[in-house]
Amino acid sequence: ENGVPAWQDVVQDYETIQNHWNMTPELNEDSSEVEVLKKCEDFAIILEKTYGNSGSRPSENETNTMGKHSKGYKSQGPRNPINEALLHQRQSLPIYSARNEIIRKIRDNRTVIVVGETGSGKTTQIPQYLMEAGFVRGFGSGIAVTQPRRVAATSISQRVAEEVGTRLGDKVGYSIRFENCSSKYTKIKYLTDGMLLREVLSDPLLLNYNVVILDEAHERTLRTDILFGLLKSIQKQREEMEDENNKRKENRLSQNNDKKTDGKTLDLENKQPPRITELKIVIMSATLDSEKFSNYFDNAPVLYISGRQYPVKTLYTKEPQSDYLDSAHISVLQIHLETNPTSGDILVFLSGQEDIESLEKLLNESNKNLPKHNKILTTPIYAALPQREQNRVFDKTPPNMRKVVLATNIAETSITIPGIRYVVDSGVHKSRDYDSRIGVESLLVQPISKSSARQRMGRAGRIGNGVCYRLYTEYDFQKLDENEAPEINRRQLTSVILTLKASGIEDILNFDYIDAPSIPSLKNGLIELYSLEALDDSGKLTKLGEWMAEFPLDPVFSKVLYESVKYKCTREILDLVSAQSVETLFYSPADNRQTASEAHKKFQSIDGDHWTAINLLKMFDSYRENGTKIIVFDQDSEYPTENPEYNEKRSEETKAEGSGQRLSSRKEKEVMSAGKLEYWCRQNFVNYKNINYVFRVRKQIETMLTRMGIDVTVSCGDDTDSVLMCLLSGFFYKCAMLQPDGTYRSLVGTQTVHIHPSSTMFRKRVAAIVYNQLVFTNKLYAKGVSSIQPSWIQTAAPKLYGNINFSS
Ligand code: CDP
Ligand code: MG
């Protein structure tokens, strides 16, 4: 008799759970009930665990409600048809022939390392193979795939959703900071490594997942590195629990399980029954020190997937180039004019959004002089670009045009853009660096490594023999480092230490790092957290520390937001923090610098860049409100700016704006209003794209603060002191004092610092400054600078600056 009651429940709860079973491919509509039940084996155990043993079986009434429509398996709801062409494309990928081997290896081993050439199909295919092979059972998201970059998580999940034939957010979804596109039905979830780290905080054993795939492992990002250690330990803990669970299950089965209910509801919707199963770890990468990884993961097997790669001819410049943007511009035009436009598209690697926008402008300018039948179509791709615009790189190039993709190193290994035959490599990227001696973190344009250069080159050999134009000399190439140092050696560790502490790792000095960071940088991180009052005297997380760990922002920003309640300036701090999510809010075109700086004057605050940003956001807000009142006639119309769809439409239709057309449809009104906003930005030399991004971020932070019970409408008006003092409660590490010669000396690290020319504080002498970041070019520059009173610094961090006399 044992076990039978549980089977019964499974059938009755079927309606509720069948969505989950849709995921298991072996099950189809014709499966007999017996087969269905067999597949439910896992479920039987779960149900037993939830209310079987504890005697809290649902009452008869509840059972009836749940089971009222059910019996047997029925496919439910519309499913997007699987596209035949995509299926064919999937099957022609190099990885397809290794499908069974991959499944078998992962089935037989706890941890597997997969090394395969970029574009071979690792990221898009392996999760699907595992799902098809039934690795995803019961509740939970099933398979997590981490990506170091947001853009990769969103664009790849979209592709995989198409291949699976599901809506994005259903069976296949993604989760990045400020944006969750997944549901309880999601089985394959692409997420940034940072988001998986966050999930560990709320689900310490990651019971939501059967499989965790750490992708792009060769990049050795700080967060992926930390995940290696955490996952290894989670895997062990789950194994131990599984053993215990098995023992308990045996005991239970021998007991009488015919206990009466105590009336508790079985909440299938909200409560995820704990499932303790083995955790599979898959490490994937394009190039990898596989031996090192294998050793670290107890001699895990390594699978090599060969890719398809045509030879690529590599050309170097004869002389070093003084301006890589200029050189890139000329090279693209040269390639475009000297080769057959149908032979393939061009991919240009640049360092970041600023570079990309400048080159885009230059190319669009040159485009005017190109013949009608031979134009260039520029498609940028970088992190802060709105999703819809990112997708343009995958669109088919229209006839008579050649696509020129302008990318950051996102296109190096994370995403493969089809149709590329020519690569232009600037030889630079943006890279973080941290000097633990002086406690200075910087984000700089720096030379890439040889291995990056090779990856960039490889992108040209996907469709046929390609050509890679390196905008540097062969001599300079030889001087490049072989690989970039792991990020853990180049970053400030404050945020990571906070996460480790919050996930229960007490002794962060002896954590199982694949490459341990230096002791000074760990200590600096601990000291900073202590000064921020996130840690107490014994190194334990304080209440504030827990709050900061929960908040998905850099601990410094979390602290500042937290303190804003005390300083009664949440509204302003919200603007200030959101504004930091973009490189710049303003723009000053080289050919119009004077007009731009005139236009920027009306936002400028004598207190510096932070208030300048707040002023801008306030004015934009108020223009948006008043502007909307004037333009929109429909009472119930909403602001269009939050919706990317409007913006897209807007750019097509902005031209109609000036023609004095009567507005007829509601849509047109909304479009017009977005157009006005963009016009306003253009007039004021404000970066429209970035300001919109800042508003999206602000909305997210606002929602999170509200959820945590903080009133986000509290404003201090124009009390600049309160805001700057509040800012200092987190930024006390980033202060500098005036010296007699007009330069500043940083408090931490005692470096000579100059104010960057882009700052409103450039050439100003004030007693003390606070800054967002230090940048080293020929000198050490402070960017994002405001003027502060020296005495405020001590108030902000008594633990750090307790016995320094700032007034002297
Ligand atoms: O991860 P890996 O570099 O091994 O390859 P992948 O990202 O899984 O991509 C496999 C194939 O799918 C590549 O040939 C891509 O060109 C193609 N793909 C695509 O056509 N469109 C996308 N949005 C994503 C991938
Ligand atoms: Mg990949």
Automatic annotation (TrEMBL):
InterPro entries: DEAD-box_helicase_OB_fold, DEAD/DEAH_box_helicase_dom, HA2_WH, Helicase-assoc_dom, Helicase_ATP-bd, Helicase_C-like, P-loop_NTPase. Residues 51-78, 240-270, 639-667 are annotated as: Disordered. Residues 51-67 have a biased composition (Polar residues). One of its GO terms (molecular function) is RNA helicase activity. Residues 331-504 form the Helicase C-terminal domain. It comes from the Eukaryota. Its EC number is 3.6.4.13. GO terms for biological process: positive regulation of transcription by RNA polymerase I. GO terms for cellular component: nucleolus. The keyword tRNA-binding does not apply. Keywords: ATP-binding, Helicase, Hydrolase, Nucleotide-binding. The keyword Hydrolase applies. It is an enzyme of class 3 (hydrolase). Residues 103-306 form the Helicase ATP-binding domain. Residues 646-656 have a biased composition (Basic and acidic residues). Pfam families: DEAD (PF00270), HA2_C (PF21010), Helicase_C (PF00271), OB_NTP_bind (PF07717), WHD_HA2 (PF04408). It catalyses: ATP + H2O = ADP + phosphate + H(+). Belongs to the DEAD box helicase family. DEAH subfamily. This is RNA helicase. It comes from Smittium megazygosporum.
